[in-house]
Write a structure and sequence with these properties.
The complex is a heterodimer of chains A (about 110) and B (about 110). With about 110 residues, chain A is mostly beta strands. Chain A is built from no helices and 12 strands. Chain A starts with a strand and ends with a strand. The mean pLDDT of chain A is about 95. Classes of the chains: A mainly beta (about 110), B mainly beta (about 110). The interface between A and B is medium-sized, with 25 and 28 residues.
């Protein structure tokens, strides 16, 4: 079945450091891939998405590239800020599973000044 | 203009009580979900409704029952609450097709069972 695996947290970085959060997936068909962010006390918000192989999603300085050959969708940001402190979820969905979403376990990021 | 709203935001109750959480979306979506998020932030899907029909029912105790009066609303009723039901419950919605449409989440309801 479909699944998403993302790196364990928590991750603690200093401001302006480079961020990578790894995400790999297993899917039977051709999924769409997403990164969601959850700020403290809030619901999940879409951060970026990619719908086909080699697509790059980007938003707020974050980027992720849909790599079919490695079944990966790693999240990156060149210079993190304190305001990026949140929990990040990788997710996939595909038509074959009735648009059911599969979420990773979440990675908590804390950025310190 | 709140896209997905939930009430109440906080719910504190005693074991054994029955409670409901309401969810409404004004996005015109045809699919709505309920998720449970535990203290470790793990998200578990509980139910999905598409055009008022249940299409996913994961291994959730039958004390939990979703009710959808129309496609803009999906309420969650919980009977005989237990300590282990304490969690944050999120409602979400999406357009059923195409699959690349993201899910939109509500702000969550923090349920505490004493």
């Amino acid at each position: 079945g479909d699944s998403v695996t993302q790196m364990e947290g928590p991750v603690t970085l200093s401001e302006e450091a480079f961020l990578t959060i790894n995400c790999t997936y297993t899917a039977t068909g051709y999924p769409s891939l997403f990164w969601y962010v959850q700020y403290p006390g809030e619901g999940l918000q879409l951060l970026l998405k990619a719908t086909k192989a080699d697509d790059k999603g980007s938003n707020k300085g974050f980027e992720a590239t849909y790599r079919k050959e490695t079944t990966s969708f790693h999240l990156e940001k060149g210079s993190v800020q304190v305001s990026d402190s949140a929990v990040y979820f990788c997710a996939l969905s595909e038509l074959d599973t009735g648009n059911q979403f599969y979420f990773g376990t979440g990675t908590s990021l804390t950025v310190i000044p | 203009d709140t896209a997905v709203s939930q009430t109440p935001k906080y719910l504190v109750t005693q074991m054994g009580n029955d409670k409901s959480i309401k969810c409404e979306q004004n996005l015109g979506h045809d699919t709505m979900y309920w998720y449970k998020q535990d203290s470790k932030k793990f998200l578990k899907i509980m139910f999905s409704y598409n055009n008022k029909e249940l299409i996913i029912n994961e291994t959730v105790p039958n004390r939990f029952s979703p009710k959808s009066p129309d496609k803009a609303h999906l309420n969650l009723h919980i009977n005989s609450l237990e300590l282990g039901d304490s969690a944050v419950y999120f409602c979400a919605s999406t357009q059923g097709n195409p699959p690349w449409n993201e899910q939109f989440f509500g702000p969550g309801t923090r349920l505490t069972v004493l």
